[in-house]
Amino acid sequence: MCSCWNALPHTEGQHFESRHPFTKEAALHTKNEFNSRVKTACQEHKTGTVGFKISKVIVVGDLAVGKTCLINRFCKDTFDKNYKATIGVDFEMERFEVLGVPFSLQLWDTAGQERFKCIASTYYRGAQAVIIVFDVNDVASLDHTRQWLQDAMKENDPSSVLLFLVGTKKDLSSPAQYSQIEQDAVKLAEEMKAEYWAVSALSGENVREFFFRVASLSFEANVLAELEKSGSRRVGDVVRIHSNSSNVYTMSRKKQSNCCK
Ligand SMILES: Nc1nc2c(ncn2[C@@H]2O[C@H](COP(=O)(O)OP(=O)(O)OP(=O)(O)O)[C@@H](O)[C@H]2O)c(=O)[nH]1
Ligand SMILES: [Mg+2]
C-alpha cells in the first residue's frame, strides 16, 4: 500500500493549462483555477471534514488494457512488462495535499477479465470518480468503454460522479495511428461527459498529471458539497464553550439527578 505524501503545490489551473495533456473539448472543467469559494474556504481553514475524507475512485476497463500498470506507475513508480491479471479487486491509498488541505484517494483497481467481473462489480458502489480505461492501440477496448460506464453507473449516482476516459499504452502507437483513435475517443468522452486523457505507464507520460487532476477535481467537488451541506452554519466555525457561559459540569450532574428521580 502506498503511503507517500504527494504534495500538490502545482495544482492551480495555470499549471494544468500549460501542460495541457488533454484537449480543451475533452475537459470536464475548462476553467483555469479552483472555484473561488473553494480557495477561500481553504485559505480560511474552513473545509469542514474534507481533510479527513477518503475519496473512492474505481478503475474499470477491458482485460490487459493497463489499469494495474497505470496505478502502479503513479503509486509505486514501477512498471512490470509481464501481464498478471488482477483477480477481483485490489486497492491503493494515495495521500495528497490540495491547497494546503490533506486529501486521500482510495484507488480501486478492478479486474477486466469476464470471470472476475461479478466480484469486481460489488466494489463499484460509492465511487466519487470513475476511470474508464482503454488501450489506444485496440479499438475494441474503446468500444467496450460504453458497457463499462453503464455497469459502473448502475451502482452510482451519475450526477455526482466524476468521469475520466483514459487511453493507455500511448508509447506503442505512432502519431498517425494515435490521432485516428484520439478523434473517436474525444467524441465518446464528450458523449459520456467524461474528461479524456492519454497516458503511458511505461514512459510515465501524463500519469502524474492525470492523477493530480483526479485528486484536484475530487477535492473541489468535496469542498463544494461541504459548503452546500453546511447551509447557514459556516463550515469550520468553532462552537466555543466559555468557562463563564454555563457550567457544563453542573448541568450534567443535574441531568443525572433528574433521571434518578
Ligand atoms: N508498452 C506498454 N505496455 C503496457 C502499458 N501499460 C500496461 N502495459 C502492458 O499491458 C499488459 C497488461 O497490463 P495490466 O496493467 O496488467 O492490465 P490490466 O488492465 O490491469 O488487466 P486486468 O487486471 O486483467 O484487468 C502488461 O503486459 C503490461 O506490461 C503501457 O503504458 N505501455
Ligand atoms: Mg489488473
UniProtKB/TrEMBL annotation:
Its EC number is 3.6.5.2. The keyword Kinase does not apply. GO terms for cellular component: centriole; cilium; Golgi apparatus; phagocytic vesicle membrane. It comes from the Eukaryota. It is found in: Cell projection, Cilium; Cytoplasm, Cytoskeleton, Microtubule organizing center, Centrosome, Centriole; Cytoplasmic vesicle, Phagosome membrane; Golgi apparatus. Keywords: Acetylation, Cell projection, Cilium biogenesis/degradation, Cytoplasm, Cytoplasmic vesicle, Cytoskeleton, Golgi apparatus, GTP-binding, Hydrolase, Lipoprotein, Magnesium, Membrane, Metal-binding, Nucleotide-binding, Phosphoprotein, Prenylation, Protein transport, Transport. Its cofactor is Mg(2+). GO terms for molecular function: G protein activity; GTP binding; metal ion binding. This is Ras-related protein Rab-34. GO terms for biological process: cell projection organization; protein transport. It is a lipid-anchor. SUPFAM superfamilies: P-loop containing nucleoside triphosphate hydrolases. Belongs to the small GTPase superfamily. Rab family. Interacts with RILP. The GTP-bound form interacts with REP15. Coiled coil: none annotated.
